Amino acid sequence: MRTEQQPAATGAGDGGADGRRAVLVFLAIAGVLFVVSAIGSTGLPDPGNQVIPPFHGWRWLQGWAQWDSGWYFAIADGGYGYIPGHQSTIAFFPSYPLLMRAVALVVGNAYVAGIGVTVASGAAATRLFFGWLRERMGRTNAWAALGLMLLYPYAFFLYGAVYPTAFFVMTIVGAFALLEHGHPCLAGMVGALATAARPTGVVLIVALAVRAYERRQEHPGERPAWWDAGVLLSALGLAAFCIYQWRRFGDPFAFITVQSAWDQQSGLHTWLKLRFFEDLRTLPDRHVLASLSYLAHPVLTLGALALVPRVFRRFGYGYGVYALLMVLVPALSTKNFFGMGRYLLAAFPVFAVAGELLAERPRLAAAVYGISGLGLVVLTAAYSRGLYLS
User: Is the dihedral of CA 259, 263, 264, 265 positive or negative?
Assistant: First the structure.
């Protein structure tokens, strides 16, 4: 597939310095959000009815450990368990909590380890994403796209929340970057970490294979054709988790089976999002911010889907297939779109084309960055106080 003409990168020799600046911008925003989280977790009114897992560690960090953070802490602290028909830790993939456990051996606290892993992963993801952008879009557009992701209202999952989102984004962008630099086997190995981090990591297996085929057409004779099969190593993460479940619990797909305990099942009811329309009746009874966030998920999903055709035109089939599936798969599997604000962070080519469009419209860009950044601060504070937002 022929892609649109890509602008030449300007100041190519400054790529390393720009990459370091990108990480510094990430860390600066992280510093602000850590203050917001510390204030929000202790100073905001209690919204009520929230489920906050027991936190062990410095109190000013507790805002980053909400909701599913407790499940990842339980895995890091005590391993997996599975009770058929009941909510169990086996529903959550292993890469992130295992890394939490490893870091906890050094810092002595699994929650603090999780926060540290998230910050480090977010910084690495920022550097990798900016490098990917610079190679394809030039310096100005790269900064525009990176700014859009870093100020995205649900980007607080990249800055400290004890969730695998930042680690997932880092491994996915890293796998693509390695493939683009002619290392399909290493791309597959890093991709295996992604497929062992989130169920939607399976999308990466398909997308890497498509992109490897595309690169074969773009660079014929670069290496033997069989060399590109190295990207299929990315399936090993998912395979290893399935084998573990089979040997330990007798069900290789226990992570799917257990979803019924969360009232999450596949089928027409889920695909048509009937639960979303049922939930609309209860929105007036919820916290106003939780209601607005609830409505934002389908809006952001539709916006991302609208940008997917531009991803195909701009970056080709590999990234187009990846963006399409990374939006559609979680969207179809959720009963009410809830969580899509967080899941869309992995659809990095969508942020790339959206940022490129904003770079052409400076006034609109300024408004979007301002509103989005304000939303990021507000949602970080609300999340840190226990509101279930994504």
Answer: positive
